[in-house]
Design goal:
- The protein has 152 residues and is mainly alpha-helical.
- It folds into two domains: 87 residues, Tetratricopeptide repeat domain (Serine Threonine Protein Phosphatase 5, Tetratricopeptide repeat, Alpha Horseshoe), CATH 1.25.40.10; 64 residues.
- The protein has eight helices and two strands; from the N terminus they run ααααααααββ.
- A hairpin with a 6-residue loop joins strand 1 and strand 2.
- The protein is globular.
- The two termini are 31 Å apart.
Length: 152
């Protein structure tokens, strides 16, 4: 998604009365994935302030801190997000929790596999493959779920 189309979607969301929290989260994610972690951090910190126990907001803020070079803030935020496991409400929350726990790969991979029980999303496939490659673990075959060993 280009930055321009993301901005258009966010404008449409504002027009239909999306909550302040969801709007800040969308803006933060949009800026993070557009390579602007500094801008993303501002939006995401506001989102976390509005909904302190949001797995999604806390996890994305941790990633923004890492990408923005604020490594210690990222570690602290990741720990906060990881501590919200009992607040997971849906498959997307599992995916964001896996992001937050990325550096604790065993736990993160478990959350990704739980995510697939509810939803088979392209983002989850990419996150799972990336984690598996970093750990040199078997990668489940993407279509059937059959384990497949990495070959280098």
């Amino acid at each position: 998604m280009s930055g321009e189309s993301a901005a258009e979607l966010i404008n449409q969301a504002e027009g239909v009365g999306i909550s302040d929290f969801r709007l800040l989260l969308l803006k933060g994610q949009s800026r993070l994935y557009a390579g602007e972690p500094g801008t993303a951090i501002g939006f995401l910190e506001e989102a976390v302030d509005l909904v302190l126990d949001s797995v999604r907001a806390n996890s994305t803020l941790a990633l923004a801190y890492y990408h923005g070079g604020r490594l210690m803030d990222g570690v602290v935020q990741r720990e906060k997000a990881a501590g919200l496991e009992d607040r997971v409400e849906n498959a997307r929350d599992l995916l964001f929790l896996a992001h937050a726990k990325f550096f604790e790969s065993e736990d993160a991979l478990d959350h990704i596999e739980q995510h697939f029980k509810f939803e088979n999303s392209p983002v989850a496939l990419l996150v799972r493959a990336d984690m598996a490659v970093r750990e040199l673990r078997p990668v489940p075959e993407l279509r059937t779920g059959t384990p497949q060993t990495l070959k280098h």
